[in-house]
Write a structure and sequence with these properties.
21% helix; single chain; 12 strands; 4 helices; 265 residues; seven-stranded antiparallel beta sheet; five-stranded antiparallel beta sheet
Length: 265
């Protein structure tokens, strides 16, 4: 189009009048129409690309939000007050986590219930881990949240399972995934009085082949920095593990906070 407009002797003064004359001339009519269609096509491509970019950014932000942490109260009377709309309790455990003699709570929440619409969700139903510290007069305070640790509901395959327990003041969270080949990961969290937060003190990762009856267990003690690896096979009954090799070595000493822990697979 610029080449065609250049045919005007004084484009600045004649402006669109010149362009109109050119469009009526056969030698310019075809080329200008082609250039005009090319420009319209390019504008459409740019518009569609911009729309796709906006959609991707919006989707990414929607998924990043995940568990609505900001909607949770800092102090509540019961676990139910810490369950956001569209979420339900998947599993929970009670026990004294800081040695004050008052029961504390740890729970796994999962998207579901009457307020959750799976058809409108961006992902499969998500899970979140929360820890509540018991206070006087049946009060609880929010002590820890992790909405990135646990696999989404339905994402773990045939052997999917997620559970939580409290033993000797330690929160134990475990999840399993897979079918013939499987993985079981277990985390241990303990209250740290110095930081007044929960830290990871240990992790176990077991991987195996159910068909062959073999597997490996890696155990990490983040307090001592020790790592133990054990390879095993099942006996003829398929009920008992027999260690085929064991290895001890120095591992990482990293008592990361409960909010920062992520699955290793």
């Amino acid at each position: 189009m610029q080449g065609a407009l250049a045919a005007c002797e004084d484009w600045k003064s004649e402006g669109m009048a010149c362009a109109g004359r050119l469009l009526r001339q056969p030698r310019y009519n075809v080329s200008m129409r082609r250039e005009w269609k090319s420009m319209k096509k390019m504008a459409l491509i740019i518009r569609l690309s911009l729309m796709m970019f906006i959609l991707l950014v919006w989707t990414s932000q929607a998924r990043t939000e995940g568990f609505p942490v900001k909607s949770l109260p800092s102090v509540g009377n019961s676990l139910s007050e810490y369950i956001p709309s569209g979420w339900i309790v998947g599993d929970q455990a009670s026990g004294d986590l800081n040695g004050d003699g008052i029961p504390d709570l740890a729970a796994i929440l999962v998207q579901g219930g009457p307020d959750f619409n799976l058809n409108k969700a961006d992902d499969e139903p998500q899970r979140a881990l929360i820890v509540l510290m018991g206070k006087d007069k049946d009060k609880f305070t929010l002590a820890g949240i992790n909405d990135k640790l646990l696999q989404c509901k339905g994402c773990g395959g045939i052997k999917e399972s997620v559970g939580i327990s409290i033993k000797k003041g330690v929160i134990i969270v475990s999840q399993m995934s897979g079918s013939r080949e499987f993985a079981i990961e277990t985390w241990r969290f303990r209250y740290d009085p110095r930081t007044q937060r929960f830290v990871t003190i240990g992790r176990d990762l077991e991987t195996g082949d159910g068909m062959r009856g073999t597997g490996k267990i890696e155990s990490f003690n983040y307090l001592t920095g020790q790592k133990m690896t054990e390879n095993y096979r099942y006996d003829d009954s398929g009920e008992h593990k027999i260690a085929t090799s064991t290895k001890k070595e120095t591992g990482p000493r990293e008592t990361s906070f409960i909010e920062d822990v992520k699955p290793s697979y």
